[in-house]
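Feature request, filed as a ticket because there's no other form

It would be nice if the structure record came with a short human-readable summary line next to the tokens. Right now we just get the raw output. Example of a typical job, pasted below so the devs can see what we mean:
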Amino acid sequence: MEEYPEEASTHHELNDLVKIKLRSETGNEKYFLGNVVENETEERRYKIRFLRRKGRKETYFVYPDIEDVALVYAKEVLMKVKVRDLRRGSHAFDDEKESGIALE
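Raw output as currently delivered:
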């Protein structure tokens, strides 16, 4: 099991949109975008409400109809991201490759 640091390197506030890196049991890494909905400082974890792509090649992300929420360790939260455009619940972010939020 992977060890997590005693202190989180950054602190994220409620409602921050963040990029998250999760690792599967087989070691594959995958990136996600989500919203901080709860901060558990004693456990150094965040409760995240995840976004999903609106379409396969779309640059817009939405909250799914069935809420996707999980607790993640502070170490797995890589960075805060900025919304470039928000339309009818669809979030668009700055250029994914330049801003470092590319999910592939």
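Something like this underneath would help us a lot:
The chain is about 5% helix and 45% strand.
The helical segments are 96-99.
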